[in-house]
Design a protein that fits this description.
two-stranded antiparallel sheet, globular, TIM Barrel
């Protein structure tokens, strides 16, 4: 009996240890300095109808970081910068980055300086505690010809200098056109990365958008190792609806993007911010998709 009990206890201990290890591996914490957040565009309709309630739900499900996609007339989702910072603080949320498109009209050629509108964008971002002020696109009028594109990229670097004064960096976030459109034998994406100073302009790689431009994240990352301080973590499936792009986003781990391989390589090469974004939902509620996406990231150790 003693031998059997001793064996039982030993086996039970091993089983418990194995279960604990498995649980740890499935839900490992992010590494020091890393963060996993959500781009609020993922729940854009909910944020329009009930921004506070939506943020409360995200916080309750375990999100600690958000990225805005709504800054209008110096307000984030209807709140001033100070008000929004308090809302986030009260919910235990932080906002390391946000999206506001930089345009040519943000620069005043007469004064050779940024307009007040762009200065306020940077100022309010700092109030909210952002690390990055990210332009999520380049307007079409700024990429009609090579000279215009070069001028815009000069403004990117200048915006980086402005952001640095407040302890932040300017950033750029790709869509798909950067890989479809070319000038002087180079894709727009290649031009953007060659003509922006990494010390001033960070790159946020959207690993899903590019698929509609015929590009693959792993190829781009290997071409520009270490250039991506932030990622939009996204999965894609083939669209079945007319009028949509060929590929649309879906819940992480369900689609055709090798998401874990991509983010693991990003982690290896210095990516720190992993921002979940899902823009289409295949009949599910966006807030429910946000929960499933976070569960997937936690299982992968993020």
């Amino acid at each position: 009996m003693r031998s059997s009990r001793r064996t039982f206890i030993k086996n039970s201990a091993l089983t418990f240890a194995g279960t604990a290890l498995l649980k740890h591996n499935l839900f490992a914490n992010p590494r020091a300095g890393e963060l996993t957040g959500i781009q609020l565009y993922s729940v854009r309709d909910d944020m329009k109808l009930n921004p506070l309630g939506t943020l409360q739900q995200l916080s309750k499900m375990g999100y600690k970081y958000v990225e805005h996609a709504n800054y209008v007339d110096r307000k984030f989702y209807g709140w001033t910068a100070k008000e929004f910072r308090k809302v986030l603080d009260d919910l235990g949320l932080k906002m390391p980055s946000g999206h506001t498109v930089m345009r040519f009209n943000h620069w005043d050629n007469a004064t050779k300086d940024f307009t007040d509108a762009w200065k306020y964008t940077v100022e309010d971002a700092a109030v909210c505690g952002q690390h990055f002020v990210i332009s999520p696109s380049i307007e079409e009028t700024s990429r009609k010809n090579y000279d215009d594109l070069k001028k815009m990229l000069e403004l990117f670097n200048k915006s980086g200098e402005l952001c640095n004064k407040s302890g932040m960096k300017f950033g750029y976030h790709n869509h798909h056109f950067e890989f479809l459109e070319s000038m002087n034998g180079r894709t727009l994406f290649d031009i953007i990365l060659s003509d922006t100073d990494p010390k001033l302009v960070m790159q946020q790689l959207d690993i899903g958008n590019m698929i509609n431009g015929g590009a693959k994240a792993l190829d781009i990352m290997k071409k520009y190792p270490g250039r991506f301080e932030s990622m939009h973590v996204k999965d894609e499936i083939k669209s079945t609806q007319p009028g949509q792009e060929e590929f649309i986003s879906t819940i992480l781990g369900v689609g055709i993007i090798p998401v874990k391989e991509i983010i693991d390589l990003g982690r290896k090469w210095g990516t720190k911010d992993f921002i979940i974004e899902q823009e289409s939902y295949q009949g599910k509620a966006p807030i429910d998709c946000a929960k499933e996406d976070l569960i997937a990231m936690k299982k992968w150790g993020y």
